[in-house]
Structure formats: structure tokens, C-alpha cells
Amino acid sequence: MHTLDFPKDFVWGTATASYQVEGAAHEGGRSDSIWDVFSRKPGAVYGGENGDVACDQYHRYKEDIALMAELGFKSYRFSIAWPRIIPGGDDGKVNPEGVAYYRALCNELHAHGMEACATIYHWDLPQSLEDKGGWTERHTAEALGEFAKVCFKELGDVVDQWITINEPLCVAYLGYYQGEHAPGIKDIGKAIRAVHHINLAHGLAVKAHRAAGLKAPIGITWNASMPRAATDREEDKQAALIARALETEVFTHPVLGKGYPELVGKLGLSVPIQSGDLEIISQKIDFIGINYYNENPVAADPNAPFKYSTKPSWQDTSDMGWPVVPGGLARLLTWVGSIGGGLPIYVTENGYARQDAVDPKGRVHDIERIRYVRQHLAVCADLIKQGVNLKGYYAWSFIDNFEWAWGYTKRFGIVHVDYATQKRTPKDSAYFFRDVIAGFGEW
Length: 443
Hints:
The protein is built from 15 helices and 13 strands.
């Protein structure tokens, strides 16, 4: 028998993102985000689906929070929709209806004994800013700094923990290099510009947080990647180093005061750094958030743009086609601990997609998801015993939702949603978390 033992102050949370769950896309003074516009582009999102309704959490947040609390979760990680707070993007005009919604959300969490963990930017850039160049332009970083100031002023007394930006890698590369996410651009030069401006936006947000004098801690969430070499050949080892530099270190190192990795310049990529930028980006943070789903082997590939490519893995895969590699989480968190200067670490997302259905008895038996989560929680428990400063874990996701370009075809939730009726049904994995949080995590 293995017992999932965690410290008494370990934070158990669950997570979502605004565009994926809120719906009410045309209510409350909200303007279009890049995902609203991208979803209207033929072929961009599976089946032409969008987040107009999603899980309707904008209207059903009380029901959802009551269920979170019933399951024992102590923190809810949500994101603040920029188009709800400043519909004009950069005109400074604050929408009181948007502010009221998030204040009500936070107050409801507190009424149920839960904390509010707010992500300032989880991918829903106001379209008006994309029309001006989006993340390829420095102006967007400055605009996010101003947006953050508004968040701190209007919500600073009800938010318990702040995250500046979620997964900068996806924002920059999926949005501006691979074109799979909004705004759907395929240009590596623009992607590298986006990398720097996203890093700068983070720094400006932290600077604004410090100026506001808030006590709630602030950090950033990376989906850091530690690709392993497919073989022990030197060229594959070098490929793994290049992959780590481009996929992780261009984000982690500037924030942690280490500057951009040398490999970026050697690969002929130009980062648009201005005087003082690195000092702004490396503002002291209070914690590091890590999103982890899988790890991939890479090998040298002379035909690839950066001379490496992902290779097949032998592990079981989720419905996303992602290999299940619990050991990758151990390698990643150990590495983050080694470069993080002792900062607290939170797993801010971890989860498993599968095809779920409610059976005739009203149950969802998602044993594969439970197996995945159990394996990764075991890694977390072991790392804490080894001295890694891991302080919490957020399950992705609380509820089935709009899974970006995959539309509604991928279910990550521990709570099932019937999108036709919006009925919520806790899956077996929800009850698994309830037991682990209560201290009965034995298997």
C-alpha cells in the first residue's frame, strides 16, 4: 500500500480559465477577445465551436463553487477576462459589470472557506489589441501592465494569490509560430518578439503589484518543458538542450534574473530587448507555478527548423495523444527547484483528457484519469520528502470545458458537463480527490 501523505498546509486547488468556462460572451459589457474572433475563422476550431456559452459559469459560479467546497478543495484558480474588465483593451475605461462579477466570485469562494487564485492573463487578449499587432508589439506588454494595475485596484482586497500569465510558451509559439491557437499566425520572428513582450508584461505586472502594496503573493505559471534525449548520442543530447532553451529557458531564465540563454542568439533569433527590460522582467516573484501534462523524447533532425524534433514514446497516451510520464514531473520539479532559488512551487495544472460519459446510474467511471492523477500525486509526495519546496497542487480542470482549438471534443474535467443542459456530474476522479484531500489517499 502506498499512502499519499502531504503536509497539513498543502494547498489543494482546482483550476479553469475564463474563455473556457464563463460563456456570456456578449453579456456584461464584455468585448471580443482574440479567441472569439479566431473561433469564427473557418477550420480554426473543431466543428466551428466557440466559448459563447461554454460551461455558463458566469451564471452558475455559485453552483460550481459549492461543489468545489463539497469536494474539499481549498483554492480555486480562475482567470480574469481582460475584455470584461477593460473592453477597449488599452483605453483605461473600466467596466463596472466585469469588476462586479469577479468580486462576487471571490466573495462566494470566501463564503465557502476557499481562497481565490486569480490569473491575470490566460490567453484572451482583447481583439482591439491584436488589431494593433498583439504580442508582437511592445505596446501590448505595456497595456497588460495597465490592466494589471486595474485588477490590483479593483480586486486586490478579495484575491488571495496572483498569477501574472499562464503558459507564455503557448501564447507565443502556438499563437504566433505554429498558428494552432489565436491569433493563428505562423512566423517565428513574430513569435520571438512575442516571447520577449510576454516576459516584459509579466515584469510590468509584478512591478505594479509591488507598487500597490498588496500582501497577496504573486508569481507566474510556466508549462516548462524538459525534453529528454531520445538516445545517448551526442547529437540527440544537444537537441534536447536546444529544445529546453527554446521551450523553457527563454521564459524561466529572464524572469529568474539569468537573462536569455545563449543558444537563442546562436540559432539566429533576435530578441527585441531595450535598455532596462531585463531588470523589469526579473522583478522578484513570490512563487513559481508549473503546469505539467507530459514529457517527450527529442532527437536531432537536420530537416527541422531548429534541428530537433519530437520522437515517439512508448508510454500510454491520453485522449490528447500525450504520453503519460510521471517521471517527467519529478525531473521537471527537481530542475525548477534547482534554479528557483528556494521559491515555493505550485503545480498549477495537471490532468488527463479522456472520453467520458454518464452511465445509466448517473456515474462517470474515469479510472484512467484516477490512475494518472494518483501517479503524479505520488511523485509530488515523494519530492516533498526529498526537500522540493512544493506547496500545492491544482487539478486541471474542475469541469469539462472549451478546449481551445479542440472545441468540446476533449474532456479534462473531474466534473462532467452535459453541454446541452449544463448539468454537472462529479466523476469518480472528483471523489478520488475528495478522499485524498481528506487524508484517505491510500492505494
